[in-house]
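Contributing: when you submit paired examples, paste them exactly as shown. First protein:
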Amino acid sequence: MKKNILTVIIMAVCLINTVLSAVIIFTIVPAANKTNHLIDKVAQIIDLELEDEPADEIAISDIDTYELAEPLTINLKRTDKTNHYAVLNASLSINKLHEDAATIQSVMDTHSNEIAEIITEEFSKYTIDEVSDNKETIKKDTLTRIRDYFNSDCIIQVSFGNIKLQ
């Protein structure tokens, strides 16, 4: 007798569980999907506003280049007991059509030491073996720091030429 009552109770609980699961599926899931769709739309709008103007869309005639006057000699991070150096030329590409371009170009010569310091600090984070593998990362981090320093995104690219590692 007790086994039959227990079986009936288990069956009733399973039936209630199934009914409640169906209620959840048909009431909460559509609302959650609508909320996710709304969040996706908001995220897309925010991404569109925060995207930088890609360098590919700027005509070459609208890009001005500022080169640091002297090559930089940079101490690289040590891995063994030997000092390693990088010697390179650095240049910045500036979007001439940007609203801050004239201001940035006029003060570029007076801030060349700060630019050189930012480049030196970024290269100094890497060993001689890591520099070649992480060149794009170094460029990206340097560009971000220079943009932050000038508080403008008119600088669209950082280039390193004639890199010699020793």
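Second protein:
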Amino acid sequence: MKKGIIIIILGVLTAILPLSLSAEDITLGKARATAEMFFSNCGVSTRSGSSLTLVNADEIAATRSASEAYYYIFNRKEGGFVIISAMDAAIPVLAYSLEHSFSIDEDMPENLRDMLALYRYQIKARRNSGEKATDEELKLWKIANTATRAGIPDAVDLQTPDWGQTAPYNRLCPLDTSGNKTITGCTATAISEVMYFHKWPKAGHGTLPSYTKDNNIVIPELTLGHEYQWDKMIPKYKNAVYTDEQADAVARLMYDVGVMCQAKYGVSATSASSATGVPRLAEYFYYDKAITKEYHTYLTDDTWKDIVRNEVGSGRPMLMFSNIPAGGSGHNFVIDGYDAEGRFLVNWGWHGGSNGYYYVGAFHGGYNVGQIAYIGDADNLYRRHHRRM
């Protein structure tokens, strides 16, 4: 049996446009009103404005005016969050969840930090251009602030597992040179979540080579062939009661994937390349080799979004790599859904924290993110091949 995994690599393209009328800034008061209207239109009561908490209050307080804010993040007391743009030349509701709360400070996963950095980068670039909001953007703001009771946007959700990088997933991860337990990293977590969704393979094959990174942690060679206990793994471990057998099952998978990707293990962060790992899925885990590369640079936004929606809509969650400019190191996460308004459902691989529907391109013109998609042949991407393992 062979399966394929779709990967999106995000970069950023910017454009410098001639100065014209400037876009309007969104004040905290207007952002809060937009957030309240969003939840109300979804049929989710906020009872009062006091039930919404500004999560990034410290960041906003550090600015001197609305022109220095980039977005406003509100957690809903009853559950859920929403991110509102601080400029009218952008999509009003950048991201939301009606279930998960937004993690902040030390609880925020690094891949999410980079997504917020992308929002800041885009908004700053748009402001500096002096370009005013388009008619379409202004229309979206009008709709966002009009009572409609339209309900929750129609959406697809493949429900990949809410796994993380610490215990119990890192049970088999090595100790660092000081004797401290390392973590799995976002790459191993994201790939493992997609593998769990497919419950494939029954076992790997071959021997993963040993390696040593510049942190002097020696990873010995790893012989595959042991069966993965998919039925023992559970969708969520945080705040759940689980057995050692259930913990060991997911830890076995995570470690094998980490070694496959030649992860550089660390206590606070573990880095690994999906560009290294994904080809090895075919080599060691019987996944499909038929993966081609498509550049968003050469595609329209609508074409690229259609690619994502088609794959996810066909029941295939996508591995995504995000590379943010100006110091971003790049991180992996999973896209396992989308809504009718163009947002994609992101699983950050952080125990479910901050999972929600996010815009990955909140602007028109040259400020949107550019992507490279690795796409398998539609006829054999998920076709099972009978072979002895």
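If you have annotations for the second protein, write them as plain sentences, like these:
The CA atoms of residues 162 and 323 lie 23 Å apart.
The longest helix spans residues 110-129.
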